[in-house]
């Protein structure tokens, strides 16, 4: 099952399609990567 997202640039009306064909979940990602302080650093 593919997931598709259409994005439109409102300034120039150009469009992009983002298609995800395969989703893998990695349960080994540490919670620290999702803290506000960490996300503000990147």
Note poorly predicted spans: none
**Distance N terminus to C terminus?**
31 Å
Number of strands: 2
Q: With helices defined by DSSP (H or I, 4 residues minimum), what is the helix count?
A: 1
Q: Order of strands in the sheet with the most strands?
A: 1-2
Radius of gyration: 16 Å
Helicity, as a percent range: 10-25%
**Could you tell me the strand content as a percent range?**
25-35%
Mean of all residue-level pLDDT scores: 90
How does this structure look, described?
By secondary structure, this protein is of the alpha+beta class. The chain has one domain. It contains one helix and two strands; from the N terminus they run E-E-H. A two-stranded antiparallel sheet has the order 1-2.
Secondary structure: elements and pairs:
Layout: E1 3-8, E2 15-20, H1 36-41
Antiparallel strand pairs: 1-2
Label this structure with key terms:
42 residues; 2 strands; alpha+beta; 1 helix
What is the gist of this entry?
Helix content is about 15%, strand content about 30%.
């Amino acid at each position: 099952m593919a997931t598709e997202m259409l994005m439109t640039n409102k300034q120039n009306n150009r469009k992009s399609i983002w298609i995800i064909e395969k989703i893998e979940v990695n349960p080994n990602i540490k919670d620290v990567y999702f803290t506000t302080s960490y996300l503000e650093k990147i």
